[in-house]
Amino acid sequence: MKQQARLLGFDACGYAQAGPVSSQAAARYGQWLAQGKNGCMAWAGNYRDLRCDPTLLLPGAKTVISLAMNYYPRRFKPAGTAQVAYYAYGRDYHEVVRDRARQLARCIEQLTGCTSRVCVDSAPVLERYWAQRAGIGYPGLNGLVIIPGRGSYFFLCELLTTLELPPDAPCTLTCQGCHACERSCPAGALQGGAVDARRCISCLTIEYRGAELPQWLATAIGDRVYGCDACQQCCPHNRDATGTAVPEFQPSDELLALTLDDIAGMDQARFSRLFSHSAVKRAKLAGLQRNAAFIKRHRR
Question: Residue 139 and residue 161: Cα distance in Å, rounded?
Fold first, then answer.
C-alpha cells in the first residue's frame, strides 16, 4: 500500500488503528470551539461525534491510512502582485488529492475486497491527530503538521478502510521552543499551537463573508488577497522545502501575474475561467474583490 501511495504521488503514508480519538484530543478540540477560536467557521462545530470517532464514517473501519502530498510551488508570484497562498496556486487540492486517494482505495478493494472511504479536508476528521498517530508528522505551533525533514507544505488526506493493517509508531517529535511562527504571524493569531481564526488572515480573506474586512486588519494584511503563508515561510523546518512534482499544482502564468487592479476589474466570466478548478473559488468573486479593495485603500 505504501509503495502504491508513492507511485500515486503521495510523499508520506502511515497507518493507525481506527477508533475514537484520545480524550485529550477531544477535549482540546472542544476547548478550541468553546473559546470561539473557530471564528466565522461555524461548520467546525458540526458533527463532533464523527470528528471524535472516524469509525462512524465507515462502519467496520479497522485502519486510518494517513497520506500527505507536497504542494510547495516551483514558481512564485512576484512581490507587489496580489498574493495568493501557495496551496491555491494550482488545481483545487480536493480534486487532485481525492482522485489519487480513490485510486489507492480501488487498489485495496481489488486486492483484498475491503471497502474504504476517502476523506479530503471537507470530511469531519481530525486530520492532524491521525497524521501524528500514523507516524507521518507532528502538529507544529503554527497549527500545521510538520513532516520531519520535509516541513509543512503538504496536503493531508485520510483513507478509512476495513482492511486491517499493522499500525505505525506515532510521531512523538515537537517543535516546542522555537516560536518563530508565533512571532511572525502578522495578525497575532497563533498561541500555543492553536490558531485563533478570528485573527487569522487566511480565515478572514477566505471564510469571512462580511461586506468589509475588520479595520484592524489593515496593518497586517499586506498584499494578501487570498490566504497567508507567513507562519510557514518563517518556519525553519521549511528551509529545505522542495517544489512539488505534481503537475496539477503548478501555477498558470495568468495567476502569477494577477494584480489587485486585475481583480478589481474582473467579471464573473473571467473569475470562473481562472478559478473554476481552484481553491480560490471558495472566496467567490465578491470576496476576492472585497479583499483587493481593502488592500488598495490601506496601502502605504
Answer: 24
Whether 261 sits among the annotated catalytic residues: the reply is no
201, 214 in Cβ contact below 8 A?
Answer: no
**217: helix, coil or strand?**
helix
The H or E element that residue 63 is part of is: strand 63-70
Q: How many domains does the chain have?
A: 2
Is 80 inside a domain boundary?
A: no
Domain boundary among 108, 132, 161: 161
Set 53, 121, 168, 262: catalytic member: 121
What lies within 8 Å, CB to CB, of 128 at 6+ separation is: 139, 143, 144, 145, 156
Domain of residue 270: give its range: 180-298
What confidence score (pLDDT) does residue 175 get? 87
Helices (H) and strands (E) in the chain, counts: 12, 10
d(CA 210, CA 198): 13
- What tens digit of pLDDT does each residue of 108-138 get? 999 999 999 999 988 999 999 999 999 999 9
Report if residue 21 sits inside a domain: yes
Q: Which three cell numbers stand for residue 184?
A: 511572525
